[in-house]
Amino acid sequence: MELPIHPIMQQSFAVIDREIGAHNFSPAEYAIIRRVIHSTADFEFQQLIRFSSAAIETGIAALRRRIPIVTDVGMVKHGVAGLVAKTFGNPLISAVERASVPLPGKTRTETGLLLCAEEFPEAIFVIGNAPTALLALCNALPAAPVSPSLVIGAPVGFISVLDSKAALAQAPVNQIRVEGRKGGSPVAAAILNALIVLAWERSRAGGAGGAGEAGED
Question: Largest CB tally within 10 Å, which of 35, 107, 183, 186?
Fold first, then answer.
């Protein structure tokens, strides 16, 4: 099955390509950055997104193995559910929905994230809203057996956001993160959707890489 390219998305990518011009991103990195810019109309993200050395390849492999995907909030989950369903069908879990009652001194999202880390230690974790959840995950990483396949860290806001991203930057885990205060659920979803498309193209090509884009979020 080929993933259709929506005409508006195709036109938008052409505009983005013209405005960015020459760049030093790898094809896969650019596919992710371009999709984030498409979702936000904010070209600053080309300076803000950071990739650890094996993040993209590890993320692609995890998606193809149908490793569970844990999002911090429902908005991120809903933003990726369509492509997940059309492609690999990975289990998709929203952390906040796992916590009916928060642990003392913790938010529901933070509590749910910790529960998910115990239940799905090798998951792809996608944080687009709650810096407390990202901090909780980073703090849990030294404890076996929590070993995420990939962490996408893109919380947005003013309180604890910079601290959570700094903690992720220091964590020994495959990661794609957004520096600074910017981010949000649409950004986190766009990063994962771009990875899904890359993984799907890889599987359709029998293992060969690709950096094209498809679908509407």
Answer: 183
